[in-house]
Write a structure and sequence with these properties.
Layout: H1 2-27, E1 33-34, E2 39-40, H2 49-53, H3 56-68, H4 72-85, E3 90-91, E4 94-97, E5 101-104, H5 126-139, E6 144-149, H6 152-155, H7 169-179, E7 183-184, H8 187-193, H9 209-223, E8 236-242, H10 245-250, E9 258-262, E10 270-273, E11 280-282, E12 306-310, E13 318-323, H11 326-334, E14 340-344, H12 353-359, E15 364-370, H13 371-374
Parallel strand pairs: 6-7, 6-15, 13-14, 13-15
Antiparallel strand pairs: 1-2, 3-4, 4-5, 8-9, 10-11, 10-12, 12-14
Helix pairs in contact: 9-11
Length: 386
């Protein structure tokens, strides 16, 4: 009898809990953005005959419920903790690595295109992306330099859990460099030579300012220019409370924060940003981002379709950098060698690169991507051939 009463009570409590969660999610307003995860949350899907018949509505509805469930931040952290306690090495594609480090898993991409299958869309292989770079080389009359930034999973592979599967990034980069018909930037060697230093953030997928400096030296070497020694700069720590993208996506909440450093002054530098096509005053550093979670965006104010940096070195060459967000922390170092640095992000900018080079009297073009972003969906690299 006591056992039966206990079971009934447990069932009632469980139903009240689930019902309370459901009602709370209905009553409380939907959140548009998660500061902790640093991303936009799914909103209520629109109902139409088309998205119902294709199954898109159900997929969107599931994402919506997952994103808007009451107490989501707590449940995400609880899942990560339970995975860790159970002995698992990974959560949401992020490895729990040594030295209080989170490292994003990198899967081996396909070299050839993958055709669409059922509801799975087609995927571009690396060969097609290399062809876009080669098309750019043939379309412009200035030198083109191509570089792929290896991830922490490659350079800090000794921190990964034992037996953790990850792509052989060096082999991928070597093949890309063999296929591309232009100058290449040996980022792997210089980063690997300094792998015992703080090249990447422990809670974020980006390289640190120190890692970006070593990337700068590799680029200068490829271009035949002289890199300014780091000891001629003064390191300034602008934040010691940075929790990055991997902290957000992994659910891990028990690691100490990263710090963000700057080496280059913004004195004598003018920045013009083009967030929506029209020019707006920008800045090499935007300190307001140091007060929010997305502190990496303090470099140039985050991703923008186009950003133009002008320096006092008016006799120096102009460079166009076709890039992802890794170039945001690289850009300050480039101000030491160029009169203008044009940062072009094809993910948000479909302007013809060929026309842009001519119209802005660009002297050289750099195509610089982290390895994951180079083969990610939505990279829009086809604009290189236009």
């Amino acid at each position: 009898m006591k056992q039966r009463t206990y079971n009934i009570l447990l069932t009632v409590l469980f139903c009240l809990f689930i019902g309370g969660m459901f009602l709370g999610s209905l009553i409380l307003p939907d959140r548009e953005f998660s500061q902790l995860e640093n991303r936009n949350l799914e909103q209520a899907p629109k109902v139409s005959l088309e998205n119902i018949t294709t199954g898109e509505f159900m997929e969107d509805a599931e994402d919506y419920v997952n994103d808007q469930i009451i107490g989501r931040d707590f449940w995400v952290a609880l899942k990560a903790w339970s995975e860790r306690v159970s002995g698992k090495q990974e959560n949401n594609g992020v490895y729990f690595a040594k030295e209080d480090t989170l490292i994003s898993r990198v899967d081996t991409p396909s070299w050839e295109d993958i055709p669409a299958q059922g509801n799975t869309p087609a995927q571009q292989g690396l060969h097609t992306r290399v062809e876009y770079v080669n098309a750019l080389v043939n379309n412009v009359d200035v030198p083109v330099y191509f570089g792929i930034i290896p991830s922490a999973a490659e350079i800090w592979s000794d921190r990964l859990p034992e037996g953790a599967p990850t792509a052989d990034e060096k082999a991928i980069i070597d093949r890309l460099y063999n296929e591309v018909q232009t100058h290449v930037i040996d980022l792997y060697s210089v980063l690997n030579a300094h792998k015992d230093e703080e090249l990447y953030y422990r809670t974020d997928h980006h390289w640190t300012s120190l890692g970006a400096y070593y990337g700068y030296t590799a680029l200068m070497n490829a271009m035949g220019l002289e890199a300014v020694p780091l000891d001629e700069s003064q390191k300034v720590t602008v934040s010691d409370e940075f929790y990055g993208t991997l902290f957000s996506s992994s659910g891990v909440r028990w690691l100490p924060p990263d710090h963000i450093d700057r080496y280059i002054s913004d004195e004598g530098v003018t920045v013009t940003a083009y967030p929506n096509g029209a020019p707006e005053p920008g800045s090499l550093y935007v300190d307001s981002y140091l007060q929010v979670k997305d502190k990496y965006s303090s470099f140039l104010g985050g991703n923008k379709p186009l950003c133009v940096i002008e320096t006092e070195h008016t006799d120096a060459p102009k460079v166009l950098v076709i890039r992802d967000s890794y170039a945001d922390s690289l850009a300050p170092f480039l101000t030491q060698n160029f009169s203008e640095i044009h940062l072009f992000d094809p993910r948000m900018n479909l302007t013809s690169v060929k026309d842009y080079v001519v119209q802005n009297e660009i002297d050289s073009v750099v195509v610089l991507y982290s390895i994951s972003n180079f083969f990610a969906k939505g990279s829009q690299l086809f604009v290189l051939g236009g």
